[in-house]
Amino acid sequence: MNDEMEMRETTVDGSQTRRWVVEAGECAALVVQRVARLGIDEAVAPYRRVRMSPAGSFVLACVKGQGRVLLEGKWQRVKAGMVCLAPPRVPNAFYAEGKEPWVFAWVRYEEPVFLSPMVGAASPVLPVAEGRALVRVMEGFREEWEGQRDAAMVHHWLELMQGMVRRWSRPWWRGEPRVAALWAAVQEDLKRDWTLEELAHRCHCSAEHLRRLCMKELGRSPMQHLTSLRMDLARRLLATTEDKLEVIAGEVGYANAAVFCRVFKRWVGVVPGEWRGGGSRE
Q1: For residues 188 and 116, what is the distance between their CA atoms, to the nearest angstrom?
Q2: What is the spatial order of strands in the sheet that 18-23 belongs to?
Q3: Is the peptide bond before 222 cis (omega within 30 degrees of 0)?
Q4: 102-127 pLDDT, tens per residue?
């Protein structure tokens, strides 16, 4: 659809959408958890959100209906029971589709560039998780918030939510020593001209087996995950240094600035210079 290509900051609800939202300004416990806002949406087309440079991680857990989510430059269809994760400072978008309401719980974090985000480059895009669990926790928090609003109970509901999100966002290979060793080596040497064959060799498995593992657990192919790690480092260098694009390109494994800029635009949605100049916002 043409609208998918119109990447600009957008907020559209539509007359039939229903939203419940709590902002950090209303709830001090959210500030402690670095949560900017959270809520439950019953979204009906033309509902859409486009965030070009969000200041924090985003988590969405679907309980009913379906919608489409732009993650890492690729549109994903998110259905009942699914969870999706998006890191900070990367464009993401959310579109409701169909006549049935798309019902989902969501959390938007507030994470300065110098802090480790809840969702990072090593986090899965679509974790193997049950999204209804987060919705149940969010509904418990909502009942307490709209009722007695006991500070201890609010804290406990938010801690339970945070525990779920941490579990979903952690690298899945912690229980897989060979895979953990592979990606640790890659992250330490992103300048290297890695190939799929070399990645598989380092992991002592076939290229196809590594591809299946990564697609199942991360929602990315091995080479796409390599790009994710490179783009994460590139964004940090753009935000924290005055290095020229040619220098940053070399640091993240690209032959020259032109190639780096093409990949960055495809992955992030804007060219590096525009991203560096635009800063981050919700």
Answers
A1: 17
A2: 18-23, 35-43, 102-109, 58-64, 83-86
A3: no
A4: 999 999 999 987 778 899 877 888 88
Structure tokens at 179: 């895979």
- The answer to whether residues 31 and 147 belong to one domain is yes
Which pair of structure tokens corresponds to residue 151? 């500070």
Residues 128 and 7 in one domain: yes
Do 15 and 144 lie in a common domain? yes
Q: What span, in angstroms and rounded, lies between the C-alpha atoms of 158 and 35? A: 10
Question: 208 and 120, same structural domain?
Answer: no
Q: Which helix (H) or strand (E) holds 249?
A: helix 245-251
pLDDT digits (tens, 9 = 90+) for 190-228: 999 999 999 999 888 999 999 888 887 677 889 988 998
In a shared domain, residues 137 and 110: yes
Residue 63, domain extent? 2-169
Q: How many CB atoms lie within 10 A of CB 112?
A: 12
Sign, CA dihedral 275-104-138-228, equals negative
Angle, alpha carbons 104-45-19 (nearest 5°): 40
Using a 10 angstrom Cβ sphere, with 0-12 exposed, 13-18 middle and 19 or more buried, the burial of residue 153 is middle
182 shares a domain with 123 = no
Question: End of a domain among 169, 203, 220?
Answer: 169
Select from 151, 169, 187 the last residue of a domain. Answer: 169
3-state secondary structure string across 34-55: CEEEEEEEEECCCCEEEECCCC
- At residue 129, φ and ψ (nearest 5 deg) are -155, 165
85 and 16 co-located in one domain: yes
CA–CA separation, 222 and 195 (whole Å)? 9
